[in-house]
């Protein structure tokens, strides 16, 4: 579970207060002159953090990972990247990290491709369970509490979740005054139903969140759509 579509989508899409429009890359040019503090919760082997370091030249990124093997690989990936001075991997749980006073209300942008299965059947693969099952290490309530503690008052949170779990997260976040700002419905193909949501939250109560769609592949050719290519072209040699 090192590189997957979910991580690539979030790493390419996550933005600090920018809106995504179908077929366009998020407007981020002004961010190149802005110093950002970014937190990646559950970084795995560092994919999303590395993508954000590539996109935002003045960003400083903390990446948290509770699984030791993944943390060690993320740390190695950061060291061997072009941006070792702007990437920090920490082997620590979000719940513990959020208790550190120096990082409270510190981050302009928080991103996460979180574990999402709630109380569902598990496999015999312990590492896969840790990556996919929220009740193993990071329930949504703990994730929301950590985000609220660490996010700056004007900051944003970007996540990717399966459709059903996203509805649960949106409802829980709202009860904690963390409000949906932007939603992108991700369709595997145009004739399919959306199976993922890209979500952006903030403390500002947006009564009319932006809602758009992104189709990943054309039918019947199965080739990537122009919109997906535009969003991810900086990370796909084939585009």
Task: Provide a quick synopsis of the model.
The protein has about 240 residues and is an alpha/beta fold.
Please explain how this structure is put together.
With 239 residues, this protein is of the alpha/beta class. The chain has one domain (5-235): 3-Layer(aba) Sandwich (Rossmann fold), CATH 3.40.50. Helix content is 32%, strand content 25%. Strands 3-2-1-4-5-7-6-8 form an 8-stranded mixed β-sheet. Helix 2 links the parallel strand 1 (36-41) and strand 2. The radius of gyration is 17 Å and the shape is globular. The two termini are 23 Å apart.
What labels would you give this structure?
239 residues, alpha/beta, 25% strand, eight-stranded mixed beta sheet
User: Can you tell me the CATH class?
Assistant: Alpha Beta
Tally of distinct domains = 1
Note the run of SSEs as H and E.
HEHEHEHEHHHEHEEEH
The structural class is alpha/beta
CATH architecture verdict: 3-Layer(aba) Sandwich
Q: The CATH topology, please?
A: Rossmann fold
In which range does the helix fraction lie? 25-40%
Portion of residues in beta strands equals 25-35%
Report strand order across the widest sheet: 3-2-1-4-5-7-6-8
CATH superfamily: Vaccinia Virus protein VP39
Radius of gyration: 17 Å
Question: Which descriptor suits the 3D outline?
Answer: globular
Distance between the termini: 23 Å
- pLDDT < 50 runs, ≥5 residues: 117-122, 127-134
Count of strand segments:
8
């Amino acid at each position: 579970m090192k590189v997957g579509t979910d991580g690539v989508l979030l790493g390419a899409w996550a933005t600090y207060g920018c809106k995504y429009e179908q077929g366009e890359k998020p407007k981020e040019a002004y961010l190149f002159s802005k110093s950002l503090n970014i937190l990646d919760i559950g970084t795995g082997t560092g994919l999303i953090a590395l993508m954000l370091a590539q996109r935002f030249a003045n960003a400083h990124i903390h990446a948290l990972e509770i699984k030791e093997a993944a943390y060690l690989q993320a740390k190695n990936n950061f060291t061997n990247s072009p941006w070792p001075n702007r990437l920090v991997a920490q082997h620590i749980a979000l719940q513990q990290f959020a208790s550190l006073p120096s990082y409270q209300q510190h981050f302009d942008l928080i991103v996460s491709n979180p574990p999402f299965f709630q109380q569902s059947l598990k496999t015999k693969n312990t590492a896969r369970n840790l990556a996919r099952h929220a009740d193993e290490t990071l329930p949504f309530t703990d994730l929301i509490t950590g985000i609220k503690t660490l996010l700056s008052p004007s900051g944003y949170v970007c996540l990717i979740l399966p459709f059903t779990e996203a509805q649960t997260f949106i409802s829980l976040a709202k009860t904690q005054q963390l409000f949906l700002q932007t939603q992108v419905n991700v369709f595997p193909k145009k004739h399919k139903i959306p199976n993922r949501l890209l979500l952006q939250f903030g403390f500002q109560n947006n009564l009319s969140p932006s809602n758009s769609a992104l189709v990943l592949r054309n039918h019947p050719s199965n080739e990537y759509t122009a919109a997906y290519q535009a969003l991810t072209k900086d990370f796909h040699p084939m585009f």
